[in-house]
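GCN5-like N-acetyltransferase, Alishewanella agri BL06. Tokens?
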Amino acid sequence: MTASVLLRLANMADADRLLHWRNDADTRRFSLNPELVTEQQHRHWLEKSLSNPKRRLFIAEYNGQPVGTVRVDSTAESHLISWTLATEYRGKGLAKAMVKLLVDQLTGKIVAEIRPSNIASIRVAEHAGLKYQCTENGIMYFVKKSD
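Tokens:
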């Protein structure tokens, strides 16, 4: 499936879709911030995210259909990545494909923060080449150091 997954930069036209994915019950259950997000909060966050030069927010598409999102927040020291997959596309290997596609574009230290109960995301991180490093404050840290 990797060949069929493409990443494109998100834009304000994606706001409703991103909010729907963000507020999905399973997404919230495994999120570091499980609170429901209002439309106003989300639009403010998206505007700030799209104008932040240290953040890149992508929409993953499979066969031309938006299926999820991947985000990277970059500093001089590392890239922090996160992702969400639309409910109807879960269990098809698409999260693995989209996260690996992002990771393969990055150089340096790549980090993902994952709740221990989120087995699917642990598998996604490992598939992308990230290795478990430690657990702090109930969050597992997966890291990849690339050239």
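The longest strand covers residues 65-74.
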